[in-house]
Amino acid sequence: MSFFEIVDPRFGQFVLGNAPVKRIATGFDWVEGPVWFGDAGALLFSDIPNNRILRWTVEGISTYRSPSNYANGHTRDRQGRLISCEHGLRRVTRTEWDGSITVIADGYAGKRLNSPNDVIVGADGAIWFTDPHYGIKTDYEGYRAEQEVPCNVYRVDPSGQIEAVITDMACPNGLAFSPDETTLYVADTGRMHEPDPQHIMAFDMSSGRPRNGRIFHTIAPGCADGIRVDSVGNLWSSAADGVHCISPQGGLMGKILVPELVSNLCFGGRAKHQLFITATTSVYSVILNRKGVQWP
User: Is the pTM here over 0.85, yes or no?
Assistant: First the structure.
C-alpha cells in the first residue's frame, strides 16, 4: 500500500518509505483543531459535535475539557498557553496556567462574532483568527443563530484591540504565517462552488497588516480547511484525499493519502517532524523528513 503520491521529485525527500500513515485514535464525529503540547507529550484536538476537547498521548485518549463550548481550532501563544476558537459562545479564549479562561474576542463593532474557526499567534503576540459562519448555520457544531457580521479575518493586538484586517473573503478558514512572517496564508472554503474554488490566498505582510491578496493555490479534490507551514516554507493543507504539500511558489509537490476527509493538521512530536492529521472520525499520524513551524 502506498501512503504517498509524489508529484514533484523533491517531495520524495520529505517522506520516509518505512514511516506509515497510522490511525492513532478513532470513534469521533468530526474532529478538528489539533495542537501539540511538546512539554506534556500530548496532542489536543476538538470533537466538535460532541462538545469536547480530547487529549492524546502514547498511553491513549482522555478528556481535556467537556463541555468545550463547541471548540474548533486551537493554537498556543508565545507563553505556551492554549488559545481556542469556540463556536458555542462565538468567541476566542485563552486558557491561563491556573485553568481560568480569559476572553480574547467575542464581538466586533458592537455585534457578536459568527463562529471563530482557526487561530494563530504572531511573533509580536498579536492573535489572528478567522470567523466564518459554519458554527451558526446549524445546531450540529454549535447553535443555529443569525449572522451579525461578515465573515472576516481579525487581528487582536496585545493590548486587546480588535481589527478586521481581511473583509472580502467568502468564508475564511485555516490560516498560517510563512516562517519569517512576511506572508499570511488564508484558506477560503466559502468558494467551494465558484469558478475559482477551494483556494488558498496569500497576502504580503506590510507594517503588520496583510496586503496584495492573491490566489496562491487551488486545492482539488476537496477544500483547503486547515493549513500549516514547515520550517523551509512549504505549505501543508487538508484536502478530500489527504494532505497536500505545496511549495512556497504555489505548486503541488505531493500528497499524503488518508482514507477520510481531512479537516486539519499540525506538526509535533519529539523533533517537530510528526504530522498529526484530524480527518472526520479519526486522528492520523505520520513521521516526515521535515520539521514544522511550531511554537513553543
Answer: yes
